Amino acid sequence: MNKHFNPVFCIAAFLLSLVVFLSPGCSTEKSKSIVFEAEKLYHQAEKLRQKSDVKSEIEGREIINQLKDAYFKTTGFCWENIDSLPLEKYPEERKRLQSVGFMAANRLTQIYSAEKKYDSVIFVANQLLYFTDLEGVELLTTRFNLARAYQSRGNLTDAVDIYHSLIDTFYPPVTEQNEIIAMVLNLPLQIIRTYRIVGEDSLATIENGIAEEYYKRLIEDWPNSDLEMAAIGNLARLYYDLEDWDKAIEQLSLLTDSTGLIDYEASMMIAGIYINGKKNYNNAIRIFDDLLSRVNDTTIIPDILMRKGIAYFEKKDYEKCRQIMSSISDDYSYFYQKSPIPQKYFALCFDKSGDWNRAENEYKWLIDNYSVSEPAFDAHLTIAEHYKKLNNKGLADSWYRRADEFYNTMASRYSNTRIEASAISYLAESARRRNMWDQAAKYLEELHNRFPTTEHGRRGLINAAAIYREKLGNSARADSLVELLKRELLPVDEGKSIDIITENNK
């Protein structure tokens, strides 16, 4: 017998190899074939989705059911085979399989959300989270879809718990490429806004403290970064919403450019606070003058001048406001032609100065030349209200009818656009000003039904609830609308962290 031959060792090696052979897992070729089959199933489902040409409601339902089956077939295959690809042995293949499962599950949540089948969304999302170890954007998307489903089902508390977990999980709110995740960064403000709108003031107050601490922590942990600047902007927004003007200005003053001066957008925000919040018009005017002294961009100058004119208007210096708006017309005609705001204030100045004949002519010019704009929509009601105050019922009714006809025309001509949404909201406003509360509430509900995911639609629901409660004495209907609002709020702002606080959004 060979002295190097050890039968005990050979038996042990054989048993070990047998264990490995029988352990969960598969060969490299088998792992690749699993991923390939999953990707093929997903692409077949996507091909069906892209080729779908719905010509009737029945066909639409049939195609939707086919899509569900195709995507469920994909996720089913992924979850049946996921344990065959342990992460430590097949990291690349497992991640690819997870990614395919995520994409198919995400399609299913989109379909079920559109159908308002939120229990199905929750099932699909939880199944995805159970079988996978998602990270990054995939985890964020899945958890957010789950939270939105809970919220849409009426479980706002459960949804907010998930939103809080996202804020904690994605700290700091940046991607691997060091890009800010606005969805997460803005969540604290969105939660506060939701609670405030639905009347949960005590919960909004709690969230105010949480948000303030969160943004201060980001500012402290990430100095001299884009994330710090974004957090400062959101903290300023928080203070603005709380009407803590001095703290808002303090934060905005930290947003400086390369020369050490407060940057343009922050300066405009501060000026807006002085106009709309502190009512310190002289300080706002000084800021605008400072900007005009250091800005050379001719596309920006007329906007600064316009806001300076608005500050004079709020100061009740109508002559100075009119002079500035006139200078914009003379020196920056391209701006004047595309923006109705200077013409609006031109008319308002004559109105406030007591020169109604000139004011009415300017309002009519505004209507004729900027018809597809909210200032033109508003001008109709301004004229009607003037004659109503004079007890000139004939002219007042004539202008209200003219306004309603105009709004209906705009709504029809620009169907499914923001213009239609504005037109419906002005139909409601026209009814409200005439104490036609039932009609106003119906228009506001129509506005929400037509544009449920927009600011116009949500505000319509808020105002409709207020009318039912305060004017029509129908608390049950008001409560049902508020409950609906709880399910639909918390939009995600993918854009800037903070809006410029100006005449248009004060």
SS elements, strand count: 0
Whole-number average pLDDT?
90
Which regions have little confidence, pLDDT < 50, spanning 5+ residues? 1-25, 492-506
Q: Can you tell me the overall shape?
A: globular
Strand content: under 5%
- Tally of alpha and pi helices: 25
What is the H/E string?
HHHHHHHHHHHHHHHHHHHHHHHHH
Report helical residue fraction: over 70%
Based on secondary structure, the structural category is mainly alpha
The end-to-end distance, rounded to whole angstroms, is 96 Å
* Multimer state: single chain
Major sheet attributes: none
CATH class of the domain at 25-153: Mainly Alpha
Question: Which fold name is given in CATH as the topology of the domain at 25-153?
Answer: Serine Threonine Protein Phosphatase 5, Tetratricopeptide repeat
Report the CATH architecture of the domain at 25-153.
Alpha Horseshoe
Radius of gyration, in Å, reads 30 Å
Describe the structure in your own words.
- This protein is mainly α and 506 residues long.
- Among the domains are: 25-153, Serine Threonine Protein Phosphatase 5, Tetratricopeptide repeat; 256-347, Serine Threonine Protein Phosphatase 5, Tetratricopeptide repeat.
- Helix content is 75%, strand content 0%.
- It has 25 helices and no strands.
- The chain has helices at 7-22, 28-51, 57-81, 91-114, 118-131, 136-152, 156-169, 182-185, 187-197, 201-221, 226-241, 245-252, 264-276, 281-294, 301-314, 318-331, 333-338, 341-352, 356-369, 374-389, 393-413, 418-433, 437-450, 455-470, 475-488.
- The termini are far apart.
- Residues 1-25 and 492-506 have low confidence and may be disordered.
